[in-house]
Amino acid sequence: MGKRTIIPFGPQHPVLPEPVHLDLVLEDEIVVAAIPQIGFVHRGLEKLVEKRDYNQFMYVAERICGICSFGHSLGYAQTIEALMDVEIPKRAEYLRVIWHELSRIHSHLLWLGLVADGFGYESLFMHTWRLRERVLDIFEKTTGGRVIFSACTVGGVVHDIENSELSGIVAVLDGLASEYAELSGAFLKDTSVNNRLVGVGVLTKEQAYDLSAVGPFGRASGLPYDIRSIGYGGYADLANFVPVTSPAGDSYARCEVRVKEVLASIEIIKELVAKIPAGEIAVAVKGAPAAGSQVVSRLEQPRGEAFYYAKGNGTKFLDRFRVRTPTSINIPGMVTALAGCQLADVPMIVLTIDPCISCTER
Amino acid sequence: MGSFKLGRMTMRSLLGKPATAMYPVVPPVYFERTKGHVENDIETCILCSICEKKCPSQAIVVDKPAKSWTIDPFRCVQCNACVIACPKQCLTMVNTYTAPATSKSTLTVTKAEAAS
Ligand code: SF4
Ligand code: SF4
Questions:
Q1: 3-state secondary structure of B72
Q2: Do residues A353 and A217 touch, judged by C-beta distance below 8 A?
Q3: Atom of ligand 2 nearest to the CA of B57
Q4: Chain A interface, mutation test: which of B79, B92, B95, most A Cβ atoms within 10 Å?
Q5: Residue with CA nearest ligand 1 atom 1
Q6: Which residue in A has a C-alpha nearest to residue B31's C-alpha?
Q7: Partner residue facing A186 (CB), from B5, B32, B93
Q8: How many alpha carbons fall within 13 Å on the CB side of residue A27?
Q9: Predicted local distance difference test score (pLDDT) of residue B1
């Protein structure tokens, strides 16, 4: 046994902008254990439910994360709607899913860019983010915001998207898909990329199951879990939804799952655009959540399953609101995947769970 | 093989027009819905304070005796809640951003009758 050294990693690291700290226990260049620590950016916004009524808290909820902002507003809206027994119009459900899937595309493109940047492939990074920009333009055109949309309200959505504009979105996505096909070739077939990803940071299916890995991280280990398949909201009307999985469990598989999920999201959007019914986009919601009412709801964010809990007290203010984001549940899996890797691969492996520490700490 | 494809893409970028706008020579394009800043048509406003109550970031202060409406653009998060809630539809989300500033300031509009 070689001499053991402990190397601190983060919370500030050139490759990883996320404020996570790891104590890496090394034997020579091999990581034998990693001890994670978070808590550097705690914002305490769950406590704010006591000061902002349930409508105002929508704008706080969507600020939980800058990348899945729409997902969090959707998750919050779903939770409050379940708490108050509100049924929203079909068109609103479809629009929500369309924005949510667009968010997934932009989130995965962002991640692919970051990962390319992580292994030093600058031009790939630039091209990926260039494509992502088109999705952000769709957001700005349809909601007025590039990052924070404020497009969801309790009871529906704020903005309608005209059917002609929806076909415009499909045209943009078709254009994006053809360029994306060239890009994904670089991610999946390029030797220099494969050298950094194949066989790195393996998490087996059993480990992923035991540690409850969620999202693309779990699906890359062969776990076919995707909350979208329980068919909430507009997902219920999809003809056929099959989670994208890959059996290998290494960094390459995680990259592959995300690359394919972008295409799957484009297909979902196309299908929903073809099926979207006409009609109202919101219902008026009056009153307040009943005292003692509690609800748990789940949602598939780009990073995996997010979990929401809310408790009403008869007033417009909630008693309690709680979010569990996908990153917090993926940290044990990440630590397991790190054991046995080379020191130089650590930032890469941490990146492959697509960590979002800031939303983990809310 | 993948690299070669990317090489083609990069060549296209080098020879084609730039992917980004040449700001500030080319002015930025805002979409109709772009959330820039909130403006109030004070003559229509009835100073009912609904916008003040709805605002999640307490950016608006309505002063009924002084007949004035004040917004702190540095607190405003462009959420549109006030615009949706206003019963007189006198608030608009304008699609241009406010000018950058070196110090924080608020913006007050007062009804003409009160000012005279
Ligand atoms: S809600 Fe409208 S009418 Fe009422 S005070 Fe605000 S701006 Fe004026
Ligand atoms: S846009 Fe939102 S944050 Fe800004 S003043 Fe209106 S309610 Fe307040």
A1: coil
A2: yes
A3: 3
A4: B79
A5: B86
A6: A141
A7: B5
A8: 7
A9: 46
In chain A, which ranges are E strands?
Answer: 4-9, 21-27, 30-37, 152-153, 156-157, 294-301, 304-312, 318-324
Structural tokens at position A51: 């000061």
pLDDT digits (tens, 9 = 90+) for A107-121: 999 999 988 888 888
- Report the distance separating Cα A44 and Cα B47, nearest Å: 34
- A77 pLDDT band, cuts 50/70/90, is very high
Cβ burial, residue B64 (10 Å; 0-12/13-18/19+): exposed
The ipTM, to two decimals, is: 0.83
pTM: 0.88
Question: Is A144 in contact with B33 (Cβ distance < 8 A)?
Answer: yes
pLDDT at A105: 92
Are A144 and B6 an interchain contact pair (Cβ–Cβ within 8 Å)?
A: no
Residue B5, pLDDT above cutoff 70: no
Please give the single-letter amino acid code of residue A362. Answer: R
Looking at residues A258-285, what average pLDDT do you find?
88
Q: CA nearest B2 in A: which residue?
A: A186
pLDDT at B2: 46
CA torsion sign for A71, A77, A83, A89 is negative
Q: Verify whether the Cβ–Cβ distance A57 to B56 is below 8 Å.
A: yes
